[in-house]
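**User:** Here is a favour to ask of a fellow structure person. Please take any protein you like and set down a full record of it. No explanation is needed for now; the record alone will do.

**Assistant:**
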Amino acid sequence: MAGSKSRTSASTDAATDGVTRVEIVTRAESRREYTPDDRARVLTEAAMPGARMLQVAQRYGISPSLVYRWRREAAGRPARQALPRAPRFVPLLVDDGGPRQGTVVPPSAPMPNAGTDRIEVVLRNGRLLRVGAGTDATVVARLAAALEA
């Protein structure tokens, strides 16, 4: 195949725990390239009756997941994509200065030097984050993430 592993073997006669041979596998290049012929050879062997993907992959020194990916690509199926995660939301209370109804968090002392324009965010862990209405949204998100950790 186009890429190859360099192997270094070492052995010792002084092993007391039953280990007498140590094999160190190193790889000189960061990523191996495979020709279409290399891929076809591996896929043909993997498609043989009774062939096991793990054994075929080990014989060629590649990962079984790579063989599975080549097989999907050869069949014209797209590579697997991670499912998109649903966005997470936290409850948000906006203080307009009026009377509160259905307050989730009990009211506490007002923020010093704060006018009536403020935002209260109730986090999932029950903590309350109060910020001024003009606070940057990215700052609020960072604070919320830090308080939830």
Residues 92-148 form one domain. The radius of gyration is 30 Å. Strands lie at 6-11, 21-26, 92-95, 118-122, 128-132.
